[in-house]
Design brief:
326 residues, alpha/beta, Rossmann fold, disordered C terminus, homodimer
Amino acid sequence: MQIAITGGGGFLASMLVRHLLDNGVAGKPVTRIITIDLVPCPVVDARVESIVADVGDRDVLARAISAQTKAIVHLAAVVSGQAEADFDLGMRVNIDATRVLLEHIRALGTRPRFVFTSSVAAFGGKLPDRVQDDTRALPQSSYGVQKVIGELLVSDYTRKGYVDGITLRVPTISVRPGAPNKAASSFASGIIREPLAGVEAVCPVSAEMRMWLQSPDRAIHNLAHALALDGSLLGNDRTVNLPGLSVSVGTMIDALRIAAGDAVTRLIRFEPDPAIERIVASWPNDFDAVRAKALGFVADEDYVSIVRAHMARIGNASPLTQNPPA
Amino acid sequence: MQIAITGGGGFLASMLVRHLLDNGVAGKPVTRIITIDLVPCPVVDARVESIVADVGDRDVLARAISAQTKAIVHLAAVVSGQAEADFDLGMRVNIDATRVLLEHIRALGTRPRFVFTSSVAAFGGKLPDRVQDDTRALPQSSYGVQKVIGELLVSDYTRKGYVDGITLRVPTISVRPGAPNKAASSFASGIIREPLAGVEAVCPVSAEMRMWLQSPDRAIHNLAHALALDGSLLGNDRTVNLPGLSVSVGTMIDALRIAAGDAVTRLIRFEPDPAIERIVASWPNDFDAVRAKALGFVADEDYVSIVRAHMARIGNASPLTQNPPA
């Protein structure tokens, strides 16, 4: 089975590549993975080809995705903080490149599985205490708008028979390994990751801020599950709100204290950033995710386990810790 | 006050042009209207300039919309049946041209009022008996998807301060003067308009099919209201479900019988078209429209009045009846 992954140089994609090589998809071995990203995929394996290029480049796509490609995972994106700061870049990557990619696949005529990742940023405005599967998307950031547009395109390309698409609205990933990024949610990993590395972390939101979180391990599990899922189970609604954990920043820090001790948490400094607070506060922080659970998607047990899994990961030699993203 | 209208050659735009010339906007006279469409605006008036061109043409937009343009009404669109039959054309006009237009206006830096029209086709899937203001958009046609993408763009361009936007989700217009078009809902005017003109009309859906309707007069009233509305009343939600009438095809025909007699209704022949039935049945047919009513948007009284208003219109000499669209 041949798979293409955009944004393949990112931490999540690298973990996904490793997972797919080790476990296959629905019992079928993965014989070849082609990644397309501005940075190379750090996983070294004969089955992996890493193309360093822009995902919106038609010639690159022609090389990377053919009739032999059984599935595409489209992770490449300009993240929330950057899409807000550079509107044109966000539109170009998050909308235009997604369209070029979908058009390339449509032209193949093979209707492969297409897994797209969206975000809690799809939601905003007045929200119920717990987001329901039929809660209206009302994004309050350019990133959120661009992601919802991607969801709509994936749905319509699926309805038209051009791809077999599924969009996962992924909770904020915590604890994301590697360096801080330009996502407004970057701190949700930084306040755990940096103190554990002996580095001071700045928390730009209050301890009361509640977020909807998922560990990298569960996110990978859910992406792999989306690759294997029977598309007909999704009917005419191809967008799935993933399960997650609703955790306040205060509880995250308590969990860090439980897992790693008091001294570590003293490396966290609160320094409010109104721009980040505004974006993060506009996101929902709790979901019922009934449909996703029925479809077999999963959440983490608790946040202490997430911190401990991160500590176990950084304790091990891995391609990620050997080659942290620049 | 200077206004630009895309799709200005259509029947709705022509009525809007006439209305704005006669009534102004919020007490201010309209001194100039520039229309951009593939067909000329049939309204003959020294204040109207009709540019016959593609709305996605940057050079045309540079000529038509300047810092003096206080408002833009973006009506140009590929309609539902045609967008379903020609996916690429729908994407090009309904998404790409909308983006070119928004980008042109953004570059002016004047943040004019931007009125965009969306549709009941924004909705689909499992719907409540009456659509609420927070009902999720789940379009089941390419037209619906493209319109919701337009809504999202208008919202984000507004949030970013590039335009002062408002999207009206307009009910199906009935009775639309002129010739049949490629909208899946074309019959909702045809079954009234054609029999009144002594011509047989084919109804492709059953008499039980219920629709969400608005007369051309009320639609024009609501478009003009959107031009005058204080944008701050809309907050962070720039998309408004318009009020309308929930009427079955059977009730529409009864109203025609009441207004015009039995002989006229005998010109209607039922001939089911599964493709049209599928699209129309996916649309909601009743709304609460609480927010729109509070904002001052209005519905018709009843369908008999709509038929009678159409009969009065075709009885009068008007630019529309003198120059029916080709």
